[in-house]
């Protein structure tokens, strides 16, 4: 059986893509996903392929609503505007691995994680709590929320 190539896109439901895109561009060190060749904006592209105007909304596709890894390694992330607000804890979340892994001494991992916490809180993230295992577990992570309340971890 011939199968098409599998690609992964992460979709984040949100109230305001334009609020989250700048945050996650910086958090993930991504870039805006450019519209397909020959189109100035995504809206222009969507019109060209026949998406009805009433499905586009007022400013859909004029500003970036998706971001990509400039190295082409990580998944594309699309911020899908939805009418309902977030109401409960995420069942899926992102772990941003900034500490360097267990081969790096705990003190250095903590310093790296805390440095990234400071950078992301300056961009609008909120700290929920730290996971610091003092019983010899050699683990440190901080759980945060993005500007719309979506949880993610810095490890």
Write the layout of secondary structure elements.
Elements: E1 9-14, H1 17-28, E2 31-32, H2 42-48, H3 53-56, E3 66-68, E4 76-81, E5 94-96, H4 106-122, E6 126-132, E7 140-145, E8 151-154
Parallel strand pairs: 1-4, 5-8
Antiparallel strand pairs: 2-3, 3-4, 6-7, 7-8
Please, could you describe this protein's structure?
The protein is an alpha/beta fold and 155 residues long. Helix content is 26%, strand content 24%. It has 4 helices and 8 strands, in the order βαβααβββαβββ. It has helices spanning 17-28, 42-48, 53-56, 106-122, and strands at residues 9-14, 31-32, 66-68, 76-81, 94-96, 126-132, 140-145, 151-154. The strands form 2 sheets. Strands 1-4-3-2 form a 4-stranded mixed beta sheet, with helices on one face. Strands 5-8-7-6 form a 4-stranded mixed beta sheet. The longest helix is centred in the last third of the chain and has 17 residues, at 106-122. The chain starts with 8 loop residues before the first strand and ends with a strand. The mean pLDDT is 89.
């Amino acid at each position: 059986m011939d199968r098409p190539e599998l690609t992964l896109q992460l979709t984040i439901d949100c109230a305001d893509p334009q609020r989250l895109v700048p945050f996650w561009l910086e958090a993930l060190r991504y870039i805006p996903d450019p519209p397909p060749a020959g189109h100035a904006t995504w809206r222009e592209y969507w019109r060209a392929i026949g998406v009805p105007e009433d499905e586009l909304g007022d400013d859909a596709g004029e500003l970036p609503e998706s971001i990509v890894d400039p190295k082409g390694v990580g998944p594309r992330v699309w911020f899908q505007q939805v009418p309902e607000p977030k109401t409960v804890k995420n069942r899926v979340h992102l772990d941003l691995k900034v500490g360097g892994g267990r081969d790096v001494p705990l003190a250095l991992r903590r310093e790296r994680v805390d440095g990234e916490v400071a950078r992301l809180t300056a961009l609008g993230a909120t700290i929920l709590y730290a996971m610091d295992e003092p019983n010899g577990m050699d683990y440190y992570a901080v759980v945060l929320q993005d500007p719309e309340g979506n949880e993610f971890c810095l490890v």
